[in-house]
Amino acid sequence: MSSARPRVVLGVGAGIAAYKVCELLRRLTESGHDVHVVPTADALRFVGEPTWAALSGNPVSSQVWDGVAGVPHVRLGQEADLVFVAPATADLLAKAAHGLAGDLLTNTLLTARCPVVFAPAMHTEMWEHPATRANVETLRSRGAVVIDPASGRLTGKDTGPGRLPDPAELFEVARHVLARGADGRDLAGRHVVVSAGGTREPIDPVRFIGNRSSGLQGYALARTAAARGARVTLVAANVALPDPAGVRVMPVGSAAEMREAVLQAAADADAVVMAAAVADFRPAEYRGSKIKKSEDAGPEPIRLSRNADILAELGRVRGPGQVIVGFAAETDDVLENGRAKLARKGSDLLVVNQVGEDLTFGRPDNAAVVLGADGSRTDVPRGAKEALAETVWDLVAARLEPRGASDGSPPV
To answer: pLDDT at position 224, please?
Structure first.
């Protein structure tokens, strides 16, 4: 990435979701990026040139014939630090996959040597069509980041996968890809599973046993993995956060539900990171109606039963070459307890952090020591949870076997 203001080419496809890209553009410009908007000609039917020019502070063009003396069809791609296409329509994905260059945006895609991100948005049938799926795989195989669309309300009465992710989450993808540069897709072609949040074990229809986990660390892990090219499944327990762009989210409530979801998702995963705070115990008996307090007697004791140890089970049933990462939230004797837990669980890495009422839970920052089963130790100073997430994925990527190595086929 250049030392001056990061230069972003924002390609805009001809989809109704183009109006959402105005918010992405605003976030990029307000955070110091030099953004040049390159819409297709039909995209200007949805949002006009004056809007893009006013928000970016730069001239807008969609044709190779505009400003020919400056050779924009070559220069824009050559000088960009990032090309981000949103919404990426089925038509745009097809043209990009086949190297067509009929307008300024497709020419820019052919000349770009920087990271390229596509954020598709279209109707479900178009997204799931074999031609679109093949084009997406072609682009990913060439190093592009193609974000899976979100599920939700589309145009008209239709709902399903095909919705453009939230602009704030798209901005996070752009920021992470820019920070890592052209070599930042070390998880491309990998499937990773991340758990996040805190489980709740119901006592009665009103009360539950829970914990303080907000899910922020798990969501940071999911977001950074997606930006590094991975297919991400996020098992989220009681989290009130927007879905990270390009991430499949599986909501759960209790430890039993999390176990079922994680084991299902982990069946074909290259790595599993258990960042969730999973309750060790649950009430042995669930009361079908609210427990009433008595004015004359104290509360009845709540008998507890032990929940399944998901991390230990993952260690026992792991697939060939699968990397398992656990988290240990400790209040005292942090490293001693962490080393003991690493030995018990059978995981490859254990992220050990000190927690408390004003530490880690619900905060945007974290500090940790990552212990390895190979005896390694990586200290992560207090900083943004995204920084810890990047370190975790660095350590995971270094432990992943080359593709095909675990089944005897040649590495790819």
So the answer is: 94
